[in-house]
Amino acid sequence: MNRIDILSSETSNKIAAGEVIERPLSVVKELVENSIDAGSKNITVLIQEGGLKTINITDDGSGIHPDDIEKSILPHATSKISTIDDIFKINTLGFRGEALASIAAISKMNITSRIKSMDFGRELRVEGGFVKSIKDAAANPGTSIVVNDLFFNVPARLKFLKSTSKESSSITDIVSRLALSHSDICFILKNNDKQVIHTFGNNNLQDVIRIIYGKSTGDNVTYFENHMDTATVYGYIGNADVSRGSRNHQTIFVNKRYIRSKLVTAAVENAFKSFLTINKFPFFVLFLDIYPELVDVNVHPTKSEIKFKNDREIFKLVFDSIHKAIRESLHDDFNIPIDTHSDIVNSSSDNESVEGKQIHKNMSIFDNDITDSKPIKVDIPIDLRSSDYEQHIDNNEPSVQSKPTPPAYINENAEPYIKPSAKPIDTDNNNKYTINNRLKSDYTTPNKNNLKLKLLKYIGIFNNTYILSELNEELFIIDQHAAHERVMFERYREQIKQSHVSVQTLLTPIVLELTPEEYSIYIDNIDIFKNSGFDIDIFGDNTIKIQAVPYILGKLDGRNFFIQVIDSIKNDKSIDTLDLKYNSIARLACRSAVKAHQKLSEVEVKTLLQQLAECENPYNCPHGRPTIISMSLYEIEKKFKRVQ
């Protein structure tokens, strides 16, 4: 029988540190937030090797009193709150007193701080949670904290960290968000002695947006603002030109705290799609100022999740403000008459109205956490016959078009929709299965034994989308878009592997200004882009010039394709190997395949069928949808009541 014992302070501190400090990003976030709470106007962040070697945060804030500097690394030591009642009226970013204690327990840390009323400062050196020295030191007013050899005494944590480039990218992202939240503070971020971010601290949010996201984004945003008795919302919403295929450029602050909220995100996207029918997610920077007692920020150790006391009111406030701003923006640009009634949320306060039912419907989706790569669960009508379906499958995200064609509703995790009558029946055991399984059962070796596909007899084409063929009393239906996607995917992937990618030189090079994080991703994967057929030159700070693109792209927009590749590399947590990155690029490239309803000649159809038969896996498109289904003669005759 095991006896109960009390853990040593060293062990318990390391366990507690693991909850607060997950990676270098966590250190930067906690220390910069402390600098903001100290009233700093200039904050400098220096990192080496993704923060694993060195993290140096310097500010000009109020500093730490020399008598308190040793207490600062003790667990639950804080100057932000004093009683439990203070938890319900928190006005600071930090309050638990866990950050410095957790960082000190798993690193070698130096703290140098000076308050303005004194002529000298105090320096504390800590290693693995143990104080090594404390002495007077020369220092400027403010605090400088240097964290070296993060996780040096927790080697198990080091094994689960990402590459230094990904850690650097994450730090760049969080510093960018913090810079947006405090436009009155000058932020400087340097990665391996190279300046990545430098904001002016002039209290102009739009200037910070230009610095972080580029001039084109800064010039395509609209200011919004709305008020209620207990809360105020304001910020900038981008137009269709700066929308993206992911939610990477969506930022929410509640009382200047960077958070993730499905409630707020859904409100913005519902308002946005009321006007702009595009299959992308809007850019926005949103601030919500609310009485502290109406939100609970003490939900998670990272403080990235909060709870609102009244979700319905917050949803309506955000929706109305975005809806009004976009409506007035379109009116100014195109002289569109302004409708005083909201499409989804009416301005009245009748809780029993259609408005209340609609809000309740939208709020039923707030079950899971939102991440950059995980879509909000919203069932939106999608026309199976349109190219929007391909876009939906490609991104594994819901379409955001506002006027879709009924009738089908697609869930992003559901299997592709096929009518029951279109599935084959096994005459031996009356078991339904797709042509994918049937052909694989007959011919187990891909590419060499696709004889059955090669023998298909072309009959015709239905709805300029589905190719009809027959063989041995079976009807085969081939999706021309999915089939061509598979052909292009395998062809392009093979070209990349053999380093023989056909490229096309652009008549006018594309000059693209990236965010610091996107630029960092490109630099880390520069060989990937080169081997994939891109000819790219550095064209200034965070700016590139694309001179050639893969020939397989055809008429696709090279600018958007490049951004989609960057987003794919960033969002897909599994893309760590070279092959997976190439496969991801190839999947994106095959969007230039023939579309549904695109008329093909008989020669083109037969050529496509021949190329599909030569594929390694002709049964599914690169996104997992089936390329072929079949109907047996038995099933057809059963439908016509010829057999029982």
UniProtKB/TrEMBL annotation:
InterPro entries: DNA_mismatch_repair_CS, DNA_mismatch_repair_MutL, DNA_mismatch_S5_2-like, HATPase_C_sf, MutL/Mlh/PMS, MutL/Mlh/Pms-like, MutL_C, MutL_C_dimsub
One GO-annotated biological process of the protein: mismatch repair
All residue ranges annotated as the MutL C-terminal dimerisation domain in the record: 458-600
GO MF annotation list: ATP binding; ATP hydrolysis activity; ATP-dependent DNA damage sensor activity; mismatched DNA binding
DNA mismatch repair protein S5 domain mapped to chain residues: 209-327
A cellular-component GO term for this protein: mismatch repair complex
The keyword DNA repair appears for this protein: yes
Family matches, as SUPFAM superfamilies: ATPase domain of HSP90 chaperone/DNA topoisomerase II/histidine kinase, DNA mismatch repair protein MutL, Ribosomal protein S5 domain 2-like
Keyword terms, alphabetized: DNA damage, DNA repair
One Pfam family matching this protein: MutL_C
Superkingdom of the source species: Bacteria
Gene3D superfamilies to which the protein is assigned, alphabetical: 3.30.230.10, Histidine kinase-like ATPase, C-terminal domain, MutL, C-terminal domain, dimerisation subdomain, MutL, C-terminal domain, regulatory subdomain
Protein task: This protein is involved in the repair of mismatches in DNA. It is required for dam-dependent methyl-directed DNA mismatch repair. May act as a 'molecular matchmaker', a protein that promotes the formation of a stable complex between two or more DNA-binding proteins in an ATP-dependent manner without itself being part of a final effector complex.
Family that this chain belongs to: Belongs to the DNA mismatch repair MutL/HexB family.
PANTHER family xref list: DNA MISMATCH REPAIR PROTEIN MLH, PMS, MUTL, DNA MISMATCH REPAIR PROTEIN MLH1
Descriptive protein name: DNA mismatch repair protein MutL
Organism whose genome encodes this protein: Clostridium oryzae
